[in-house]
């Protein structure tokens, strides 16, 4: 049920442990090319996969257009084209927006479908003025049922999807990493962690891995560093081994070990990676099933009635926050909510809606501390960490990283 493509990875990467080094200077040996600069070929094909269905609700708006033209869709009550979307208060667009998120993992498949909207009430007047090209849309006060449309879809498990997310909210507390773990690492600091994750974002992109793999990789790195002391020389080894473990958990075809040896510029050999894999798995007690930011992002984007741009901008903010150790102060569900809040704000939507509040169990007031930290991070952009910004500056991801992103309510639109 998955489509797959093969692509050759031609990257030759090194990773320096000098805390003052720039990513462009990183290398396992002096003079080696940084990630993205190599020209070697012959690396094994890397696999990718697509999700089963659109994770957003924008497909429903296409039905609304058909209803406005006299068309019918059996078993679904939809708003006419002249009536605003239940959560946006705006007329439905002419075509569904395709979600740009890569895929939903098997552990997140319960949240991978679009939703039925009931007939919406008339939209209230706009609450504030905004540029004509991006008007602010107001929200209905009545939450919508985001699972109604999938009642007959077995993979959506609508009968107990709510229970699943109640459980995940409990597990995110139990599996939370303590930010203070850096105090017990005499040889590693926060900057080194950020540089490592910046490099892994590029490796993840070159290997065409699913988004779940990146988020799980970062969690495994943090959790292992919380449990064990690591030297500077072995920090990159921990990073690639965490990606190997995450790939085996999330991917159909994980990268081969020889590919990981190659991508580290042969700083480590096959035996070292296998030994670290065993060490990490035992230290983590093989507990790889953890709720990540992406797990909650999938579900909450449905509740946000997200279009393509909101999906892309939410993913940009979420991935950028992976590099910040300060985000460990907040639960993954909170970071996911904040990413959606920022995306809706910058796309002219009302920042929060009754439907989002219903399914996330968070009010805007609950998000303010995390939003303040996100605002601080994004205002400091322009440093050495460029992988996420470069990735989301491409047209493939909507060039959302080139936008001026406002976060807090008092920021200019």
TrEMBL record:
Residues 1-56, 121-153 are annotated as: Disordered. Keywords: Cell cycle, Cell division, Cyclin. SMART domains: CYCLIN (SM00385), Cyclin_C (SM01332). Residues 1-10 have a biased composition (Polar residues). GO terms for biological process: cell division; mitotic cell cycle phase transition. Residues 291-411 form the Cyclin C-terminal domain. Residues 121-133 have a biased composition (Low complexity). One of its GO terms (molecular function) is cyclin-dependent protein serine/threonine kinase regulator activity. Pfam families: Cyclin_C, Cyclin_N. Residues 198-282, 295-376 form the Cyclin-like domain. Residues 34-45 have a biased composition (Gly residues). The keyword rRNA processing does not apply. Belongs to the cyclin family. This is Cyclin B2. It comes from Ectocarpus siliculosus (Brown alga). The gene is cycB2.
């Amino acid at each position: 049920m998955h489509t797959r493509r093969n692509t050759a990875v031609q990257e030759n990467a090194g990773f320096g442990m000098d805390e003052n080094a720039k990513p462009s200077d990183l290398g396992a040996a002096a003079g080696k090319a940084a990630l993205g600069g190599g020209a070697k070929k012959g690396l094994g094909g890397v696999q990718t996969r697509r999700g089963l269905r659109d994770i957003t609700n924008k497909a429903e708006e296409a039905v609304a257009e058909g209803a406005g033209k006299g068309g019918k869709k059996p078993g679904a009550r939809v708003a006419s084209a002249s009536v605003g979307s239940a959560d946006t208060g705006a007329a439905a667009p002419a075509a569904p927006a395709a979600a740009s998120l890569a895929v939903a993992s098997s552990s997140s498949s319960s949240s991978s479908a679009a939703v039925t909207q009931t007939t919406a009430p008339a939209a209230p007047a706009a609450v504030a003025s905004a540029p004509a090209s991006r008007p602010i849309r107001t929200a209905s006060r009545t939450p919508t049922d985001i699972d109604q449309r999938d009642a007959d879809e077995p993979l959506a498990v609508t009968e107990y999807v709510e229970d699943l997310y109640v459980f995940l909210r409990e597990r995110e507390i139990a599996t939370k990493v303590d930010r203070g773990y850096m105090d017990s690492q005499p040889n590693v600091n926060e900057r080194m962690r950020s540089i490592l994750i910046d490099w892994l974002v590029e490796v993840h992109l070159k290997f065409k891995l699913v988004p779940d793999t990146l988020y799980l990789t970062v969690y495994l790195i943090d959790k292992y560093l919380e449990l064990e002391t690591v030297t500077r020389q072995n920090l990159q080894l921990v990073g690639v081994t965490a990606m190997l473990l995450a790939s085996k958990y999330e991917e159909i075809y994980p990268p081969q070990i020889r590919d990981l040896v190659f991508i580290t510029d042969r700083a480590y050999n096959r035996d070292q990676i296998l030994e670290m894999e065993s060490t990490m798995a035992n230290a983590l007690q093989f507990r790889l099933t953890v709720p990540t930011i992406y797990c909650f992002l999938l579900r909450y984007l449905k509740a946000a009635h997200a279009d393509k741009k909101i999906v892309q901008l939410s993913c940009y903010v979420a991935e950028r926050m992976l590099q910040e150790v300060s985000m460990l102060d907040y639960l993954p569900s909170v970071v996911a909510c904040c990413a959606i809040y920022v995306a809706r704000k910058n796309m002219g939507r009302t920042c929060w809606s009754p439907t989002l509040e219903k399914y996330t169990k968070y009010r805007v007031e609950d998000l303010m501390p995390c939003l303040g930290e996100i605002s601080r991070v994004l205002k400091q952009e322009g440093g050495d960490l460029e992988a996420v910004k470069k990735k989301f500056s491409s047209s493939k991801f909507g060039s959302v990283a080139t936008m001026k992103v406002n976060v807090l309510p008092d920021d200019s639109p």
